[in-house]
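Appendix B, example 12.
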Amino acid sequence: MRLGQWISVIALLISLYIMWRIRQVLLLVFGAAVFATVLNRVVRRLQLSGVKRGIAIAITLLIVFVTLAGFFLVIVPKIGDQVQQFTSLLPQGIEQLRTGYEWLQSRIPGRVLEDNRSVSALLQNLQTWTSRLLGNFWLLVSNSVSAAVSLLLFLAITIMLLLDPLQYRRVFVMAFPAFYRRRVEEILDQCEHSLVGWSRGTLLAMVAIAIVSYIGLLILGVPLPLVNALIAGLLEFIPNIGPTLSIIPPTLLALLDAPWKAVGVIVLYLLIQQFESLILVPLVMKHEASLLPLFTVLAVVVSSIFFGFLGLFLAVPLLVVVQIWLKEVLVEDILNQWKGDEKLEKPEQIPADIAQDHGLNKT
């Protein structure tokens, strides 16, 4: 290779290394861009009503801050009290679950459960993991300075992107060759449409799941229904994996009252998941981004491995954007435009066994 090519390769490798080192910051910028995109749609709606853009931005940000302030002033104190009860009751629920299993082991005749130590080991590990999780949770809460700085950075980037989105979009488009910039504009429009639709549908699903869970847990008389319902609503943001994890805390707490309540909680959450998958998600996501379940699960797992806790929550919007870019650039603009050998496109040039497998008529 020539010297210029070597310099280009080295510069690319250095750029990739720097991007990897600051991946948390880049992911935070991506999250702010997604949030700014959603808020910008609200600003546009206000502008269509005759409100000037500056005033529309101020109204939108005021709504966001009032919502956050109301959440922290009204709901967070109640959640804090219930979280303290939750941290003290959850180990008791695990211990009672282990006691129930030991009772079942003593009642079943023969050697059905005598040599089965896996469940006991699982319950012991579950108690250890719970203690570590609660310890890490309070460590995370105590380390509020870093969280506050990240939140302020997130809000600052969101506001800057919201004030002049066209300027930042123009800078991004300029990174592409001149002949492809119009196409990039089209792809960005599709990304905006899909992200706004996905965020709207996800928010509706989270609220619906939280309300239904709260009503169901109140009827069953499970302790701490508010915090468990909020956990179910928040974990709805993480598709497939989140709803499955949300069933664990209320089930363990229900064991403290009566075993039948734990069974009722399991049945309740299974019914909620069926309602979500068969009715809620198809209804709210009817015209929004279509994501295959396998790719969604893989995106959540891989993103959490590479980006940690923040990647767990931004995996789906990241998948939405990546899916659109792969579809439009790789499939539409490259693979679909790839002209193969003209002779191989004629049926008479295709081997007989391949033609028969694909139902092609050589005559």
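The chain has one domain: 22-108+121-336. The radius of gyration is 26 Å.
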